[in-house]
Amino acid sequence: AEDKALLALLSVAGTEIPGELCHSEMNLIKDRLQVNCSGLGLTEVPSALPNTTGILLLNTNHLASVSTASFQHLPELIELDLSGNRLGALHTGAPLPLLQELILSHNALAVLPTLQGLPALTHLELNLRGNRLRMLPEKAFEGLTGLKDLDLSDNALEEL
Ligand SMILES: *[C@@H]1O[C@H](CO)[C@@H](O)[C@H](O)[C@H]1NC(C)=O
Ligand SMILES: *[C@@H]1O[C@H](CO)[C@@H](O)[C@H](O)[C@H]1NC(C)=O
């Protein structure tokens, strides 16, 4: 019964600060702090994330719109998984200079986000079963000299 009461308390606290429900652990292979917020029904990016977060899993939530401004307090962020949300837009006005990997598969994107603020990107997954890209801007990947792995499968692209 005490366990149940504690759990109830925790879940009440969690609705106020969803970030507290994210499980953090060192990813020993990548030697980065990995914060797992997947599958929590989030509609917003949690604000209380550790500032040493290197890998952030926000997949399988209900995020409809995300801005890179939400991650400006995470200067060590190198991987961001936003797959399996409801993203119609990703606003990238605020740069993420170290971000190497961005996973956007299984969302509802109709346009490719501007990628110029992500100069370190090497791995971009837009594998879009459920995304709706029909065309890519001519200079979409300009300046992304490190990009090695680009997955654009399952889109509605008419030309590239
Ligand atoms: C993240 O958490 C979810 C839900 O608890 C779990 O199913 C998943 O395996 C975790 N992912 C990783 C990479 O640890
Ligand atoms: C994180 O916050 C702590 C305490 O506020 C600070 O000492 C540390 O330098 C910060 N680390 C980063 C990477 O910003």
From TrEMBL:
<keyword id="KW-0407">Ion channel</keyword>
<keyword id="KW-0732">Signal</keyword>
<keyword id="KW-1133">Transmembrane helix</keyword>
<dbReference type="InterPro" id="IPR032675">
    <property type="entry name" value="LRR_dom_sf"/>
</dbReference>
<keyword id="KW-0813">Transport</keyword>
<dbReference type="GO" id="GO:0005886">
    <property type="term" value="C:plasma membrane"/>
</dbReference>
<keyword id="KW-1015">Disulfide bond</keyword>
<keyword id="KW-0406">Ion transport</keyword>
<keyword id="KW-0433">Leucine-rich repeat</keyword>
<dbReference type="Pfam" id="PF13855">
    <property type="entry name" value="LRR_8"/>
</dbReference>
<protein>
    <submittedName>
        <fullName>Uncharacterized protein</fullName>
    </submittedName>
</protein>
<keyword id="KW-0472">Membrane</keyword>
<dbReference type="InterPro" id="IPR003591">
    <property type="entry name" value="Leu-rich_rpt_typical-subtyp"/>
</dbReference>
<dbReference type="GO" id="GO:0034220">
    <property type="term" value="P:monoatomic ion transmembrane transport"/>
</dbReference>
<keyword id="KW-0812">Transmembrane</keyword>
<dbReference type="InterPro" id="IPR001611">
    <property type="entry name" value="Leu-rich_rpt"/>
</dbReference>
<keyword id="KW-1003">Cell membrane</keyword>
<keyword id="KW-0677">Repeat</keyword>
<dbReference type="InterPro" id="IPR051432">
    <property type="entry name" value="KCNMA1_auxiliary"/>
</dbReference>
